[in-house]
Amino acid sequence: MSELFNKVKRCFGDYAVDKRLAYELELAKLPRYVAEFLISEFMYGGGDWESKLRNFVKDHYYEPEEKEVVKHKLVTEGVVRLIDELRVYVDIETETHVGVIQALDIWALVPVDIVNRNRATLTTGMWGLITLKKSDIPIEVFGRPISVVVADFKPFQAPDTDPKILEEARECFTLDEWIDVLINTIGLDPTVYSPRQKLLLLSRLIPLAEGNVNMVEFGPRQTGKMYLYRNVSNYVRIISGGIISPAVLFYNLRTRVPGELAVKDVVVFDEVSKVRFQNPDEMMGKLKDYMESGHYERGDKKVVSDASLVFMGNIAVEMSAEGYVPIEDLTYVLPEPMRDSAFIDRIHGLLPGWELPKISQTKYHLSKGYGIASDYFAEALHSMRKESLVGLVGKHIELSENFKIRDEKSFKKITSALIKLLFPHKSFNKSELKLVADAALEFRQRVRDWLHKIAPGEFPKERLNIRIYS
């Protein structure tokens, strides 16, 4: 075992996890934070725990296409236990709690005591072992009869969410070591990436560490864009193409259920070119207003949220002397309603995903050692959002006069997020601050260059500059 992995085990204790086990035990169907939680539970049970874990997952995890199998078991056996995410909604009129298992399209009544013990089911949703039972008397809620009850729920959740563990452990590592720890934590092998590529990979965590940050990443397929967002946190909702309604994203007027922006830390639009809106004018108006202000209205509902937005697009690339470069006009990767300067200017940063290599075989690109437990790391990222370091950035960095207000906001938010990720203990020197500030400046400069290309009269070609105080 390498010295770095020994240091991770020593400094993180129970929150150090061998990242190889999740894929070696063929648990790829589960989010990584769920797989690692189960590994920890079964490992300390002794015996042939690996076989027991595999059988447990095989017996209780159902693919979305198996939803009729689950329903069949409920009808014929009266009970079924399954591993999935439970999200609870409250119908005030009937004073009932309704659990929704979205992947299987199953609605079930949830007793109040289960909700009280697992409050996160009311906000982001929680993964766990759900016991469903068939009820003899259906109850109508939200306009549909429900004849299933959640009889029991065992959550798969980190017992400790104290971010101080992360801050104190950071003192054990140099910056280069810490970056490698984080790369291992997100499930990748840091030895196959250059320092530049490692920083780009960790920049995908910016929206998770900072509220109300809007990022775009364009790159070829299979560079791990969705791998990270699916596996790093249960506070992420991924929308993969298709038609998106105001009810899903903002607020459902009929059921009075908040949309994804109200309950998640990050909403990711995967394959953004395939996204379609039911009412493009209404959706884009509300989306641009939200990206600017952090709040939106629909009907009589006013919502304030710190959810960040990520827009992911696949593009064609070719090899040049500088590495891979895009050969498509980035504007046309976006769906038509998004192809205007008002929308693009509200994007805080553009990540050049085309610089990252494709993830090939497991033995080459996936982690081979210890990192931070994903369920704890997800909670640490969630806690980071409660504090902004924008004021700290302003004390250390002076901006050139050609910064507009959106440039300033974008640069400071991205820098704040990168400081939280790389220096959670808030201790850094001038060269270390320059590393993250230069990255933030580059990501915003790419947006400015994009704006100049589509609206040169409104956005002149100019370079943004900063000066870092000693």
Largest sheet: 5 strands, antiparallel
**CATH-scheme architecture of the largest domain:** 3-Layer(aba) Sandwich
Tell me the Rg in angstroms: 23 Å
Point out poorly predicted stretches. Answer: none
Got a strand count? 20
Shape: globular
Structural description of this entry:
The protein has 470 residues and is of the alpha+beta class. Helices cover 40% and strands 26% of the residues. The chain has helices spanning 3-12, 20-24, 32-43, 49-60, 67-77, 112-117, 164-170, 175-185, 195-203, 206-209, 225-232, 246-249, 260-263, 280-293, 341-344, 362-365, 374-384, 390-396, 405-422, 430-454, and strands spanning 16-18, 79-91, 96-101, 106-109, 126-141, 144-155, 214-219, 236-244, 251-252, 257-258, 266-277, 295-298, 301-304, 308-314, 317-320, 323-326, 349-352, 370-372, 397-399, 466-468. The chain has a five-stranded antiparallel beta sheet. Strands 8-11-14-7-17 form a five-stranded parallel beta sheet. Strands 1-18 form a two-stranded antiparallel ribbon. β3 and β4 form a beta hairpin. The chain starts with a helix and ends with a strand.
Task: Give a short synopsis of this structure.
The chain has 470 residues and is of the alpha+beta class. It has helices at residues 3-12, 20-24, 32-43, 49-60, 67-77, 112-117, 164-170, 175-185, 195-203, 206-209, 225-232, 246-249, 260-263, 280-293, 341-344, 362-365, 374-384, 390-396, 405-422, 430-454, and strands at 16-18, 79-91, 96-101, 106-109, 126-141, 144-155, 214-219, 236-244, 251-252, 257-258, 266-277, 295-298, 301-304, 308-314, 317-320, 323-326, 349-352, 370-372, 397-399, 466-468. Strand 12 and strand 13 form a beta hairpin.
